[in-house]
């Protein structure tokens, strides 16, 4: 157990939730049956991370004849599952860590470490688990020039300049962290892909990373630019039905697999935000995806084809466009294609209703894309634990096959019987010493990995196990951290866009408020497109009298959303345009409720500050100070969001604030002129 004085020593967060590397290695009795790179790593991790063990530890795959008498579960564990339990092997009482493969044993070793560090009694340990989702990947939006799109934790981890020769030890540390959660894939480069990532030079660099990651059970994938046959191959077209194009991709896939025999496959953003794609040739997304899938198929690779499109279809409502384009394609995708769908129909907002494509394409494996990097939730500075956001979508009921057809069951493949299933998280990782830009952002990487393994885990339980491992086992500290984490995401919703409002941020940076913005090139880039507020009311009518986006949901869900009285209040203005004096269920007016949420958002951040103050004696000064400073920034900016938003709404509705609610600090003109001048600019 870590003592208070150990917890209080300097800590820059580099070790994440894993124990500090400089802990004196305990002299534990750890043995393996057989040899293999992954088995050796598993044993090494236990040596490195476990302080004590009540019994010798034995690591072995189930295949070992010495274990035959134990009748360990076989098929139930699959390729990556594990068993950790007491056993007697060759007359010795041991803690056995086993699985069908060495990777399973590695995951079992990490489960044992996690159990020990969260206070489990190892003398009675009995763990058995297998991942519910097959493909558990981090999508790095890392550019080849070392920058990271929407990255707030420093430059890209991948040092392309030094690769393939120099393999930075950070790559191993990164793989360890991923493997400790069960993450088994990494997309190395941005979905806004440059063709260069498919040149021999970059394939060699990717191969070097694959060599580092392989023994940790991690495959590499690449984002592929659809027009690469033109840019790299000198072809005149990238038409997926042109045999020369298909042949180019087949040769490219063969070339990649010569360098990376276990290459995972391609991630593709096509016909979205200016990216090339099959629609350029009047071909469907399925025709584009299937052509790439055919090239990868002989090697066992997959295509993750994104459904994040908002093009010419449905000009009246961006939220309808992905469904409109993809729903008719159900059943048309090859069997090694996953269609990758963001949690909501717009774009990673602090809260969105679940995407209507979940449950709507039963003959297609649908993969969930979550954003771990907090593009719309205050970057690295604001504290927002995303476990509740992730779980909210996973628990959402699509009613696709009646009650209980949750998004979790759609994406783990059980609802429609797909063996191929996946979950992707847009990484929040860079070269900052603490990897994710803040201590609490590490928890979002952690929560993604744990939920990808088991989408049914509780976000609060995940927060607790993260806090215990990150800060040490002192329950007082874990209690404080969990309390802060569990209120943090709702606080961001409250001060940026309560009651179902969304996409009200300033343009380019996506950090501060800009609800007044109305003249950007595309209508759906403007906040006014989303809130539709005027003198008489606010909200986007997505019922039959408006865009009728609700018709994209199954009838049970659509019926509930058709009526503001049966729509969850948290999604009210996403689906309905309502008068400012609309009576909420509480009896207060919509306007007063809205103001109360903004006030609550600011108050929640103040509460987190007070809670963190109490944690001061229990945390090392480095992490305490950085978090305290960030909370102060967040408080200032939550106030800014509230004041700027209210000043704007009041310029439309001319309503007074309810008693006890302070007037905005400045005039609307002032906020409009400021435009969050200090936000790092990432213009489109
Ligand atoms: C990679 O591009 C991003 C873009 O930066 C971002 O603002 C938006 O969230 O979505 C795009 C996408 O998901 O493709």
**Percent of residues in beta strands:** 5-15%
Bound molecules: 4-O-methyl-beta-D-glucopyranuronic acid
On the 0 to 100 scale, the average pLDDT is 95
Number of strands: 15
CATH architecture name of the largest domain: Alpha-Beta Barrel
The CATH superfamily label of the largest domain reads Glycosidases
Radius of gyration: 25 Å
Instruction: Strand order, main sheet: write it out.
Output: 6-7-8-9-10-11-12-13
CATH-derived topology of the largest domain: TIM Barrel
How many domain modules? 3
Helix content: 25-40%
Q: What is the CATH first-level class name of the largest domain?
A: Alpha Beta
Shape: globular
Reported for the largest beta sheet, the result is: 8 strands, parallel, barrel
Strand pairing plus helix content: what structural class? alpha/beta
The number of helical segments is: 20
Oligomer: single chain
Give an overview of the whole structure:
With 684 residues, this protein is of the alpha/beta class. The chain has 3 domains: 15-129, Chitobiase/beta-hexosaminidase domain 2-like (Chitobiase, domain 2), CATH 3.30.379; 135-471, Glycosidases (TIM Barrel), CATH 3.20.20; 494-540 and 577-673, Alpha-d-glucuronidase, C-terminal Domain (Alpha-Beta Complex). Helices cover 36% and strands 10% of the residues. It has 20 helices and 15 strands. The protein has helices at 4-7, 37-49, 102-117, 169-181, 200-213, 228-231, 243-259, 285-296, 321-326, 387-395, 407-411, 439-453, 459-471, 475-496, 527-531, 555-562, 572-575, 590-615, 621-653, 668-674, and strands spanning 30-32, 57-61, 82-89, 92-99, 126-129, 135-139, 185-187, 219-223, 265-268, 302-306, 337-342, 366-371, 422-426, 537-538, 578-579. The strands form 3 sheets. An 8-stranded parallel β-barrel has the order 6-7-8-9-10-11-12-13. β3 and β4 (92-99) form a beta hairpin. α13 (459-471) crosses α14. The two termini are 49 Å apart. The model is unreliable at 1-5 (pLDDT under 50). The protein binds 4-O-methyl-beta-D-glucopyranuronic acid. 4-O-methyl-beta-D-glucopyranuronic acid (GCW) binds at residues 141, 149-150, 191-192, 269, 273, 308, 347-348, 375. It holds the Pfam family Glyco_hydro_67N. Keywords: Carbohydrate metabolism, Glycosidase, Hydrolase, Polysaccharide degradation, Xylan degradation. Residues 54-112 form the Alpha glucuronidase N-terminal domain. Belongs to the glycosyl hydrolase 67 family. Its EC number is 3.2.1.131.
């Amino acid at each position: 157990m870590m003592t208070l004085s150990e917890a209080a020593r300097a800590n820059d967060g580099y070790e994440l939730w894993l124990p500090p590397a400089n802990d004196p290695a305990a002299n534990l009795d750890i043995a393996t049956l057989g040899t293999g790179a992954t088995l050796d790593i598993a044993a090494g991790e236990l040596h490195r991370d476990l302080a004590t063990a009540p019994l010798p530890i034995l690591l072995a795959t189930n295949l070992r004849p010495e274990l035959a008498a134990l009748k360990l579960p076989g098929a139930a564990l699959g390729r990556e599952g594990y068993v950790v339990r007491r056993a007697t092997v060759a007359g010795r009482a041991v803690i056995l860590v086993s699985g069908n493969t060495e990777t399973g044993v590695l995951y079992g070793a990490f489960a044992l470490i996690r159990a020990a560090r969260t206070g489990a009694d190892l003398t009675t340990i009995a763990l058995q688990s297998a991942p519910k989702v097959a493909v558990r990947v981090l999508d790095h939006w890392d550019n080849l020039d070392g920058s990271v799109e929407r990255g707030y934790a420093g430059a890209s981890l991948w040092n392309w300049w030094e690769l393939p020769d120099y393999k930075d030890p950070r790559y191993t540390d990164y793989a360890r962290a991923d493997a400790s959660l069960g993450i088994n894939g990494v997309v190395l480069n941005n979905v806004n892909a440059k063709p260069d990532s498919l040149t021999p030079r970059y394939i060699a660099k990717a191969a070097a990373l694959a060599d580092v990651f392989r023994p940790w059970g991690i495959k590499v994938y690449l984002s592929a630019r659809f027009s690469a046959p033109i840019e790299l191959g000198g072809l005149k077209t990238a038409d997926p039905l042109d045999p020369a194009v298909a042949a180019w991709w087949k040769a490219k896939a063969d070339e990649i697999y010569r360098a990376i025999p276990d290459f995972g496959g391609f991630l593709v953003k096509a016909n979205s935000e200016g990216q090339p794609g099959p629609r350029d040739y009047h071909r469907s997304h399925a025709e584009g995806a299937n052509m790439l899938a055919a090239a990868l198929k002989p090697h066992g690779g997959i295509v993750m084809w994104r459904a994040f499109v908002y093009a010419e279809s449905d000009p009246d409502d961006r939220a309808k466009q992905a469904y409109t384009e993809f729903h008719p394609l159900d059943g048309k995708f090859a069997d090694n294609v996953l269609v990758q769908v963001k949690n909501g129909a717009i774009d990673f907002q602090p809260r969105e209703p679940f995407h209507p494509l979940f449950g709507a394409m039963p003959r297609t494996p649908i993969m969930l894309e979550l954003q771990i990097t907090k593009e719309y939730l205050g970057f690295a500075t604001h504290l927002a634990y995303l476990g509740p956001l992730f779980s909210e979508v996973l628990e959402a009921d699509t009613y696709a096959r009646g009650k209980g057809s949750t998004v979790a069951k759609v994406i783990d493949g059980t609802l429609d019987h797909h063996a191929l299933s996946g979950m992707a998280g847009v990484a929040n990782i860079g070269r900052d010493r603490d990897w994710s830009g803040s201590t609490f952002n590490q928890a979002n990487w952690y929560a993604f990995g744990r939920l990808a393994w088991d989408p049914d885990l509780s976000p609060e339980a995940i927060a607790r196990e993260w806090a215990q491992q990150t800060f040490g086992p002192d329950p007082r500290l874990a209690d404080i951290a969990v309390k802060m984490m569990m209120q943090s995401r709702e606080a961001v919703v409250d001060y940026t866009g309560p009651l179902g409002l969304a996409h009200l941020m300033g343009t380019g940076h996506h950090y501060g408020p800009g609800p007044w913005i109305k003249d950007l090139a595309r209508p759906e880039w403007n906040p006014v497109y989303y809130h539709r507020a005027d003198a008489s009311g606010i909200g986007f009518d997505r019922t039959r009298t408006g865009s009728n986006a609700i018709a994209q949901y199954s009838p049970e869900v659509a019926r509930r959303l058709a009526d503001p009285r049966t729509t969850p209040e948290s999604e009210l203005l996403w689906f309905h345009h309502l008068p400012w004096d609309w009576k909420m269920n509480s009896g207060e007016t919509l306007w007063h409720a809205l103001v109360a949420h903004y006030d609550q958002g600011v108050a929640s951040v103040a509460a987190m500050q007070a809670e963190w103050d109490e944690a001061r004696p229990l945390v090392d000064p480095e992490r305490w100070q950085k978090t305290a400073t960030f909370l102060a920034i967040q408080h200032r900016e939550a106030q800014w969001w509230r004041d700027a938003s209210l000043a704007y709404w009041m310029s439309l509705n001319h309503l007074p604030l309810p008693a006890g609610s302070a007037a905005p600090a400045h005039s609307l003109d002032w906020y409009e002129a400021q435009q969050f001048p200090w936000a790092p600019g990432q213009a489109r």
